[in-house]
Specification:
Layout lengths: L20 H26 L8 H27 L7 H13 L14 E4 L3 E4 L2 H31 L1 H6 L1 H28 L3 H7 L1 H22 L1 H7 L6 H35 L2 H48 L4
Antiparallel strand pairs: 1-2
Amino acid sequence: MNSEALAPGAIPPGPSVTPTPGATLRARFMFALAFVHLLLVAGLVHRATSKSVTQWELDVMYVGLVALWPVFAAEAAWGVVRRDQSTPRRTALMRALLVVLMPAWRMALIDPRTGLIWVPRIGWQHSGKELFKRLELAFGGPMLLFAFLILPILLMEYLRADQVKELPALALALDIGIAVVWVAFAVEFVFKVSAHPKPFAFAQERWLDVAIVVLPMLEFVLTKWVDAAPLARLLRAGRALSPEQIARMQRLYRLQGLATKAWHSFLLLEGISRLLGNTPEKRLAKLETQIADLEEQLREVRADADEVRRQIAEKGAQGEVHSVDRSAPVP
């Protein structure tokens, strides 16, 4: 195992699950590919629908996504076949399917042979509360900055709308800024979900983070759906539309606009939530809740221990009775 896997603060794995240098190299390579794939998706979601996008940009995004996908599919299948036998086949298949459908999840995928997650700068780690807490601390400050980075972007988008339409360079800068914010939230969400002991419970609790990651993709799908709809083709062809067809198009456009406004609102709400969540009062309330949960767990453990002691005492008392009975003289 290389020195990065034994970086300060890393949790050393047991001897039976120590990743090989080849596994570490593969983890680094696949992380880089997954991050590149996420960047291409960000470009597709936030740039491809822009009126100023060039055909060259579209070709790079589409060709890159198509070229990378087979690599993730092949590596996911290899992981299922070469997994550790203690890992249930169903679990390995579900993780592989997740990567095939959304390759960005490969950034923080639990290795099927070792059960560890490779994290940049700190190496191989066990998933669980310890890693999740470290990720919370690592992402806390930067994500607060990214959440409020949306403010100047929104001001530019709404107050300088005419300039954005007239200047392609300004539109490109705006799209890149929005894409960077989205990528930051997506990376944080992928790593935290992978590290959390209860991923589904975490996703339900952090529904705002889920919305921030999912809504732009929903907006992209709606945009493509509107452009590909037969009604849109008729409109581009200059054919007359019936009032019902026009009303249907208007509903689709309203839904698309609603997704955009909801995403902007959720970003602002997320920034405010993170800012307020970092106050001493909020941290104290969170710590007190954790203390209460731990005390409840401790009471349950003590109750279980008392029950075991009682059972041991009863068994010992019964043993003494049987010993006395055997040692008693036979009349």
